[in-house]
SDR family oxidoreductase (Paenibacillus arenilitoris), 252 residues
Amino acid sequence: MRLSGKVAVVTGAASGMGKAIAELFAAEGAKVVVSDLREETAQAVVAGIEEKGGAAIAVAANVANEEDVQRLIDTAVERYGTLDILVNNAGIMDNFVPAADLTNELWERVFAVNATGPMRTTRKALPIFTEKKSGVIVNIASAGGLNGSRAGAAYTASKHAVVGFTKNVGFQYANLGIRCNAIAPGGVSTNISTSINAPNPFGMERAMAGMGINPRAGEPEEIAKVALFLASDDASFVNGAVVTADAGWTAY
């Protein structure tokens, strides 16, 4: 098994890509901390992992909350003794709101989850990784973090921030045995759309302009396989990279 003996924290792991990543990591031998806002659904993921012989615990946490992030990582270490892998998956959309219609509240809320959240979890994990001279961070960015209009202004900017943060951490900590990479998924069948409420007509129209060339939507399990590769020793020479998984959508 490719992650045997490893301890992994996965945020936003109650559904979609996070759930698929948690389940695959557990199947590959990792002890998984399933973190999500929704404790009940996180517990259901844990139950499914345990039914298949895996090891996991659920921790309710909001990555936009500093105290929750501290408790999340502390709980992982208290329960399993260490931390080896951090997957920053939690994210929200922005109703396709363009720059002219942005409110401070929307901008700050999207950045709090999508960009500040990964910074906080990474900041908390790095002392653990630097002490043991090993550790892996996998950030779930987005095709929207490589392009200009896959969503609204706040989401797009937040995912560009994740890409820049990934590259910075990957390079700066490379000599300490730590790797940090990101995945840039295209359209994937998840429930992130539940964070979309009354999308902005202008912003959605502009974002949809490129949807006609999208070959297909992906499945969460397809992204999980990329995350497994990046988290495993198979990717030992991959660092500071952004792996696009979008069926060729952004290749055009």
Q: What stands out?
A: The mean pLDDT is 95. Residues 47 and 217 are 28 Å apart (CA to CA).
